[in-house]
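Lab meeting, item 3. Inverse folding demo.
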C-alpha cells in the first residue's frame, strides 16, 4: 500500500513538466553570470616611460641622468 502512495506522489510531481522551466532557469543564471565579463570597461594602456640608454658602462635615462 505504501508503494502505491509513493507512485501517486511521483506521478503528481511530473518531472517532465519541470524540465523545461528548470533548463530555462539554469540558462538564465548562466547568462547573468557571464554578463560582467562582457560588460567590463576597456583597459587603457599605461603611459609610456622614457627609454633608457647607455653611454659606455653607464645607464642613462631620457634626460641623460646616470642611474645606478
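The presenter then showed the designed sequence:
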Amino acid at each position: 500500500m505504501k508503494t502505491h502512495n509513493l507512485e501517486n506522489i511521483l506521478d503528481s510531481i511530473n518531472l517532465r513538466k519541470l524540465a523545461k522551466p528548470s533548463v530555462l532557469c539554469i540558462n538564465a543564471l548562466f547568462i547573468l553570470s557571464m554578463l560582467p565579463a562582457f560588460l567590463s570597461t576597456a583597459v587603457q594602456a599605461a603611459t609610456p616611460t622614457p627609454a633608457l640608454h647607455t653611454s659606455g658602462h653607464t645607464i642613462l635615462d631620457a634626460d641623460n641622468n646616470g642611474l645606478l
